[in-house]
Write a structure and sequence with these properties.
Helix content: 10-25%
Number of strands: 4
Number of helices: 2
CATH topology of one domain: 2,3-Dihydroxybiphenyl 1,2-Dioxygenase, domain 1
CATH superfamily of one domain: 2,3-Dihydroxybiphenyl 1,2-Dioxygenase, domain 1
Order of helices and strands: HEHEEE
Structural class: alpha+beta
CATH class of one domain: Alpha Beta
Strand content: 15-25%
Shape: globular
Radius of gyration: 15 Å
């Protein structure tokens, strides 16, 4: 049986793809390809970082206050710094920073109303295979 090996990308609709890509490049340093697609190379990820794929119930409130049917998570090296940068870029922080066994998390609403989760893996995370 063929099987999925990982998430190859996250693709979503927005009003102005180039403008939003430029915003993520400027305020979070998302490495952009010439076609305005952000590409994260495995060798740049911190130890213990993973790509998660998780369906949520249609009634979840976890994506609130966004009205979108999705939320994406970006791995960052400095949670407070990243949140401060996106606020400087016009984003709105949502909720409080949370810390748990999977690391530290913070959230913001981007300029197009997408809720984004920022994640710093825990320092004692197992190395990537």
């Amino acid at each position: 049986m063929a099987k999925a090996l990982g998430v190859g990308g996250i693709f979503f609709k927005c009003q102005d793809p180039h403008k939003l890509a430029d915003w993520y490049d400027k305020w979070l340093g998302v490495p952009m390809e010439p076609n305005h697609t952000g590409c994260f190379r495995p060798e740049t990820l911190p130890v213990g970082a993973i790509t998660a794929w998780g369906p949520f119930k249609s009634t979840t409130k976890y994506f609130d206050p966004s009205t979108k049917d999705f939320m994406f998570n970006l791995i960052v090296d400095d949670l407070e710094g990243a949140l401060a940068q996106v606020v400087e870029g016009g984003a709105e922080v949502v909720g409080e920073i949370e810390e748990g066994e999977y690391g530290r998390f913070g959230w913001f609403m981007d300029p197009e109303g997408n809720k984004v989760e920022l994640w710093v893996p825990p320092p004692d995370a197992a190395p990537n295979p």
